[in-house]
Amino acid sequence: MFNINSSFYKFLTALQGRLHTEFELKALSESICFLYAEDLPISVVYYLSGAERRVTVSNGTRCIHVDEDLWITKPDILLSRLAALGGQARRIHARNTVAARIDKPTALAFQEEHHLQVSLPGKYRYGLYHQGELVAAAVFSGGRKMEGKPENYRSYELLRFCHKQGLQVVGGFSKLLDAFEQEFMPGDIMTYADKDWSDGSSYRNTGFIIVGEIEPQVFWVDTRTMKRYYESTLPPDIANKSIEERRKRGYNPVYSAGSIKLVKSV
Fold first, then answer.
1. Which domains does the chain have, with CATH numbers?
2. What is d(CA 114, CA 162) in angstroms, rounded to the nearest whole number?
3. Could you tell me if 45 and 65 are in contact, meaning their C-beta atoms sit under 8 angstroms apart?
4. What pLDDT shows up at residue 143?
5. E strand segments, the chain
6. pTM confidence score
7. pLDDT value at position 58?
8. Which pLDDT score, from 0 to 100, does residue 1 have?
9. Alpha carbon separation from 159 to 115, 118, 121 (Å, rounded)
10. What is the Cα–Cα distance from 139 to 162, expressed in whole angstroms?
11. How far lies 221's CA from each of 5, 30, 88, in Å?
């Protein structure tokens, strides 16, 4: 029986209201619950704090993995992203936008407001503007020389991409890539797709190919604040403790599903 705590109940109520549908619930364990609806292209696996590793669920829909700490710390961004995947975002077309370079503060502020992961400054930043409003942004690394490639060959990494909450720019990802490619003429662009959210299909549709997978990551969540830590960023008095001792001190592990590595040759 899944432990339906107040946090999960608030998530379920908010999600159903945002997607205008009722979800069926299936308990997969005391800390993992599967949410699905026949009229939606997505389903959700919800993990309470302290849940074990990711589970595999196959019901013909795109399955999204959601951790309790993300719901508590970034509820608006989480709901907006799920709503967009569920077909509830306002759509505008990339042909009605203008691509332009944006500065570091603008890119960081946009990510902070509209991206679930940690904001990254990158080296090169591009945005799409619709009637003067920034509606999508992409952040790239600097170029890297590659062994066995010509001297002028450079490989870049797409570090972040996101839309403004509640919006989906149809063709926006391709337009931002095109703007970057036209200016820098990269040999290739590499990126990672988070398997908690993606199977990589949106990247493959724009010319990326899958070249490998990255093992699941382990984060540590302080259950008092719901703040996430990498192993390397844990407070010193926690980092030197055993797994069991960390749990006793209120730090629970969170296991991601891993990532897909993709490369686009230009």
1. 6-85 (no CATH), 90-186 (3.40.630.30), 207-266 (no CATH)
2. 7
3. yes
4. 98
5. 24-27, 32-36, 42-47, 62-67, 90-93, 98-101, 124-130, 133-140, 155-163, 167-170, 188-194, 209-214, 218-222, 227-229, 251-255, 259-265
6. 0.93
7. 87
8. 86
9. 12, 11, 9
10. 9
11. 18, 19, 30
Tokens read off for 115: 């991206």
Residue 69: HSE in the Cβ half-sphere, 13 Å Cα cutoff: 21
What are the CA-CA distances from residue 127 to residues 123, 182, 200 (Å)? 14, 15, 22
- Candidates 43, 40, 175; CA nearest to 98 is 175
CB neighbour class for 6 (10 Å; exposed up to 12, middle 13-18, buried from 19) = exposed
Tokens of 33: 């619950």
**Token output for 175:** 């337009």
Contact 50, 39 (CB under 8 A): no
Q: How far apart are the first and last CA of the chain?
A: 51
DSSP state of 104: H
- Report which of 196, 184, 190 is spatially closest to residue 208, judged by C-alpha positions: 190
- The C-alpha atoms of residue 228 and residue 28 are separated, in whole angstroms, by 24
* CB contact at 8 A, 125 and 113: no
Pairing of strands 188-194, 155-163: parallel
pLDDT at res. 258: 97
Mean pLDDT for each consecutive 10-residue tract of the chain (266 residues)? 93 97 96 96 96 90 96 97 95 98 98 96 98 98 96 97 97 98 98 96 96 96 95 95 95 96 96
Q: In this structure, what token pair is assigned to residue 67? A: 């951790």
Count of residues making up the chain: 266
Strand partners, 46: 33, 66
